């Protein structure tokens, strides 16, 4: 049982490049999330998808877009990467509201 | 909107000593509370959760937490720590919606 799988695990981008972070879950969860983790700031919610077909902004959505491709997959796109987007990105899923989230292993992104 | 404050950013502790990590939250409605642990270069793993019922919650690896509604706190404790408990710990809160908000984290370093 893989749980939540993120690809890639590491990525280096040049300023202005674009890329998509992929996330897939095999737990049949309804809700999916993208967080970024920065030292001393905990995890901040970028976007979430309460259910298939819906997406909503979190605390720090600027510079990002998401797609809930189907129930399993939720991708995060950086259209024009900036050094401020250097971070560790975590995807998570949960059965629904008011429940715990299950996390992937993270993607370490560096923008130079 | 909910917010979470972890009162200690770093907690050094000797092996076999007790540890307490403090977490306060602000919310005007009923909340659901969680503690997660993150070992180096890994994702987040759920330690324990409070959804309803008994205010004393037991989790994995000998951790427990107590929900105090009047003080809006959810402190995490372990009576005797091991070297393997060295990690970063995050308190999180969820309200009626699908968003899970995290504190800034507490780094626990266990020394022999």
Q: How would you describe what is shown here?
A:
- The complex is a heterodimer of chains A (112) and B (112).
- Chain A is mostly beta strands and 112 residues long.
- In chain A, 0% of the residues lie in helices and 52% in strands.
- Chain A contains no helices and eleven strands.
- Chain A has strands at residues 4-7, 10-13, 19-25, 31-38, 42-49, 56-57, 64-68, 74-78, 87-94, 102-103, 107-111.
- In chain A, the strands form two sheets. In chain A, strands 2, 4, 5, 6, 9, 10 and 11 form a seven-stranded mixed sheet that branches.
- Chain A is globular.
- The termini of chain A are far apart.
- The model of chain A has no long low-confidence stretch (mean pLDDT 94).
- Chain B is mainly beta.
- Chain B is 0% helix and 54% strand.
- Chain B contains no helices and twelve strands.
- In chain B, strands 2, 5, 6, 10, 11 and 12 form a six-stranded mixed sheet that branches. In chain B, strands 3-9-8-7 form a four-stranded antiparallel sheet, with no helix packed on it.
- The relative contact order of chain B is 0.34.
- The mean pLDDT of chain B is 93.
- The interface between A and B is medium-sized, with 27 and 25 residues.
Low-pLDDT runs of 5+ residues of chain A are none
Amount of beta strand of chain A? over 45%
Largest sheet of chain B: 6 strands, mixed
How many distinct helices of chain A? 0
Beta strand count of chain B:
12
Order of SSEs of chain B, N→C?
EEEEEEEEEEEE
Main β sheet profile of chain A = 7 strands, mixed
Keywords:
heterodimer; A: 112 residues; mainly beta; globular; B: 112 residues; six-stranded mixed sheet; four-stranded antiparallel sheet
